[in-house]
UniProtKB/TrEMBL annotation:
The protein's name in its UniProt record: 3D-(3,5/4)-trihydroxycyclohexane-1,2-dione acylhydrolase (Decyclizing)
Entry's Gene Ontology BP terms: inositol catabolic process; isoleucine biosynthetic process; L-valine biosynthetic process
NCBIfam families: myo_inos_iolD
Species whose genome carries this gene: Devosia crocina
Limits of the Thiamine pyrophosphate enzyme TPP-binding domain: 415-566
Keywords: Hydrolase, Thiamine pyrophosphate
GO cellular component: acetolactate synthase complex
Transmembrane segments: none
GO MF annotation, one: magnesium ion binding
Length: 611
């Protein structure tokens, strides 16, 4: 006779999640971020209170940023652990859609549990219910379908018996990993069911390492062996595979230069002689010189985003070949690449064995040395002592770099800083975290919280501009309440400086980006120090680069977040590196500036090479 236990559906969900384990005997779902409302407070809220520390609950300030914290946690844990996020029905749920898209683009696991409408439909329409005039099965949560790797609507308790294992399978699948949405009808949350006791036995989830097909590896090895100037581009898949040692060994054994994408940066130490920085739009000069002449480009764990490829204008050599090592066949076959569908670590080992000790000619080490000399100049301390002098973002990065230690981890997401950091930051292994798949403004503060929760030993430094900070800063209060210490470097250029420069590069007038070019009656003077203090953080204003460096050192001794505000100028980008980015310029319009921008755009379009 089957032994059963009577629980509500919400109680069963939380009990089951609490015993899904990693091979290291840790919970895969570390805990649940929650903002309660009428769609989840009675069912899920009661269940979370009842389970207590067996599945901890944390209170956030905004559903989107709670999910950002959870996603940053999973990225820092290299997809080996994750968090869940629950919201009420309606606006609480749709607030999480942006975060779901972020996780989907970045292939990161997060379990989203929005409350949903009544399955029995008796009280319809309920508060905040979206009604589709043509489809009675639709709710606001259907917005999650295109941005979830797995979506399910729980309309009967026993559906959890299949939905929950499916959710875990997706989040632990190295090829299909991404966000899971279980839309939980609010009446079903509260319904009782006699669950098999065996359903709640602990289960260990292992992340597999799929081996690539021998024919695919052989074809890739043959193409590499015939190359004259190969280049390896390391993406985030190298980190998720824990393949850093194999990457370095492969590069050194065969004398192949390595470039890192935003997601892959930190896979190889910047001091490694074969590390030539980054490719593409935010690439190093020496890196872009390599990919321009490369006859074979080996991508490992990268999806060849447009920033990596310079919108497919950076890989210029006629007849060049792409090899793409990726767990997802969808990514491996992009742009006519030779696909190698398999785990990065295992594939690098097998490729190296097939190359049988073959070594290629030295890359341009003199160009690499010249590049680092140029970056030294870019983020050197400013020489001006004028009272109204404002430093550039590059100089701010230089200040943080000079004060960085072995445990420093810098993070960012949007604006000027991601490009400047990829070009300039000299990352120690594991010292870089960038959300640049979705480049989501507002990820930064919440993301820093998630990173520090995942890696308490790290000295986490969050770069955020005033524009992103204004979009989403409320989880700073959460970090202060939870005593999660990290350092925010808040650069204030009084608007959206990055997109203002792009607007001008595309031939447009300065319009609606910086406050001074916007339709406002009064130019704002926002006191970010006072604001951050009001949320519970330690906050100071740095009068210049020297003060910034001193405050960075002082912040390390605190047990709460520190916000260091520094005024910067909005006109200068990184000042070094980079190449063209395909942002469409109007074909017709007013002014010679627009015409010149369009002419330049058409010239660059002619440089695009797709296969």
């Amino acid at each position: 006779m089957t032994t059963t236990i009577r629980l509500t559906a919400a109680q069963a969900m939380m009990r089951w999640l609490s015993v899904q384990m990693t091979p290291e005997s840790e919970r895969f779902i570390e805990g649940v971020w929650a903002i309660f409302g009428h769609g989840n407070v009675a069912g899920i809220g009661e269940a979370l209170h009842g389970i207590g520390d067996a599945l901890p609950t944390w209170r956030g300030q905004n559903e989107q940023t709670m999910a950002h914290a959870a996603i940053a946690y999973a990225k820092t844990k290299r997809r080996r652990r994750a968090m869940a996020v629950t919201s009420s029905i309606g606006p609480g749920a749709t607030n999480m859609v942006t975060a779901a898209a972020l996780a989907h683009v970045n292939r990161l696991p997060v379990l989203l549990i929005p409350g949903d409408i009544f399955a029995n439909r008796r009280p319809d329409p309920v508060l905040q219910q979206i009604e589709d005039f043509d489809d009675g099965t639709i709710s606001a949560n259907d917005c999650f379908r295109p941005v979830s790797r797995y979506f399910d609507r729980i309309m009967r308790p026993e559906q959890l018996l299949t939905a929950l294992p499916r959710a875990m399978q997706v989040m632990t699948d190295p090829a299909n990993c991404g966000p899971v949405t279980l839309a939980f009808c609010q009446d079903v949350q509260a319904e009782a069911y006699d669950w098999p006791q065996a359903f709640f036995e602990p289960r260990t989830w292992r992340i597999r390492r799929p081996e690539a097909d021998a024919a695919e590896v052989g074809e890739a090895a043959e193409a590499l062996a015939a190359a004259e100037r190969p280049v390896l581009i390391a993406g985030g898949g190298v980190l998720y595979s824990d393949a850093e040692a194999e990457l370095v060994d492969f590069a050194r054994t065969h004398n192949i230069p390595v470039l890192e994408t935003q997601a892959g940066k930190g896979a190889i130490d910047w001091q490694e002689r074969l590390n030539f920085g980054s490719p593409g739009v935010t690439g190093s000069d020496c890196g872009n010189a390599l990919v321009a002449e490369a006859d074979v480009i080996l991508g490992v764990g990268t999806r060849f985003q447009d920033f990596t490829t310079g919108s497919w204008a950076a890989f210029q050599r006629p007849g060049r070949k792409l090899i793409s090592v990726n767990l997802a066949g969808y990514d491996a076959a992009k742009h006519g690449a030779i696909p190698v569908v398999g785990d990065a670590r295992l594939t690098l080992q097998r490729l190296s064995a097939l190359l049988a000790g073959k070594r290629f000619s030295d890359p341009d080490f003199a160009g690499r040395d010249a590049w680092f000399a140029r970056t030294d100049e870019a983020f050197a301390p400013p020489q001006s002592a004028a009272p109204n002098f404002l430093p550039s973002d590059a100089q701010v990065i230089g200040a943080v770099q000079r004060q960085a230690g072995e445990d420093t981890l810098v993070m960012c997401a949007a604006g000027t800083m991601p490009g400047a950091l990829q070009v300039l930051w000299r990352a120690a292994p594991g010292g870089y975290h960038m959300e640049y798949g979705y480049s989501c403004m507002g990820y930064e503060v919440a993301g820093a919280t998630g990173i520090k929760l995942a890696a308490p030993h790290k000295d986490v430094v969050c770069f955020v501009g005033d524009g992103s900070y204004m979009m989403a800063n409320s989880e700073l209060a959460t970090a202060a309440m939870m005593r999660v210490p990290f350092t925010i470097v808040l650069t204030d250029n009084r608007g959206y400086g990055c997109i203002n420069r792009l607007q001008q590069e595309c031939g447009g007038a300065q319009f609606n980006n910086l406050y001074r070019h916007s339709n406002v009656a009064v130019q704002p003077e926002i006191d970010f120090v006072a604001h951050a203090r009001s949320l519970g953080a330690h906050a100071v204003k740095a009068g210049g680069i020297a003060e910034l460096e001193a405050e960075l050192v002082a912040a390390r001794g605190r047990d709460l977040p520190t916000v260091i505000v520094i005024d910067t100028e909005a006109e200068t980008g990184p000042g070094v590196g980079g190449t063209w980015w395909d942002v469409a310029v109007p074909e017709v319009g007013q002014g010679d500036t627009l015409k010149r921008a369009r002419d330049k755009y058409e010239q660059n379009l002619a440089r695009q090479v797709f296969n």
